[in-house]
Amino acid sequence: MNVRIKRVYLEPEDADGTRILVDRLWPRGLTKERAKVDLWLKDIAPSTELRKWFAHDAAKWVEFQERYSEELKSKGEPLALLKQKVSQGPVTLLYGAKDEAHNEAVILQRVLRHK
């Protein structure tokens, strides 16, 4: 299963395969043409409440992972679509956060690799 993660602001590459944005909000200052997003799955992103609570604070990372994993249990349709795309070929999960180690794409990649 080939699931990569990548900051949406980085240049698209052929090796990205299907580029799926997993943020609830469109990345600031980025045009749709430049982003080259094939699918925007904003419904799979953390809830607004969870996103605001986390605020990309690495000290909250462990609890954020638990809360987001719990939220994913109720996201059957977008999660099924994501799994379908992964079964069709390489996928790159795109995110806007500056922190490459603490964001929802990291969690989604782990979920997809273990199911």
What would you note in describing this structure?
The chain is α/β, with parallel strands linked by helices. Strands 1-4-2-3 form a 4-stranded parallel β-sheet, covered by helices on one side. The mean pLDDT is 95. It contains 5 helices and 4 strands. It has helices at residues 32-35, 48-54, 61-72, 76-87, 104-113, and strands spanning 3-7, 18-21, 39-40, 91-95. InterPro entries: YeaO-like (IPR052552). This is Uroporphyrin-III C-methyltransferase. It comes from Granulicella mallensis (strain ATCC BAA-1857 / DSM 23137 / MP5ACTX8). Pfam families: DUF488-N3i.
Encode the helix/strand succession as letters: EEHEHHHEH
SS element count, helices:
5
Q: How confident is the prediction overall: mean pLDDT?
A: 95
- DSSP E strands, number: 4
Protein name: Uroporphyrin-III C-methyltransferase
Organism: Granulicella mallensis (strain ATCC BAA-1857 / DSM 23137 / MP5ACTX8)
InterPro entries: YeaO-like
Pfam families: DUF488-N3i (PF22752)
A few lines on this structure:
The protein is an alpha/beta fold. It has helices at residues 32-35, 48-54, 61-72, 76-87, 104-113, and strands at 3-7, 18-21, 39-40, 91-95.
SSE order and pairing:
Layout: E1 3-7, E2 18-21, H1 32-35, E3 39-40, H2 48-54, H3 61-72, H4 76-87, E4 91-95, H5 104-113
Parallel strand pairs: 1-4, 2-3, 2-4
Protein name: Uroporphyrin-III C-methyltransferase
Organism: Granulicella mallensis (strain ATCC BAA-1857 / DSM 23137 / MP5ACTX8)
InterPro entries: YeaO-like (IPR052552)
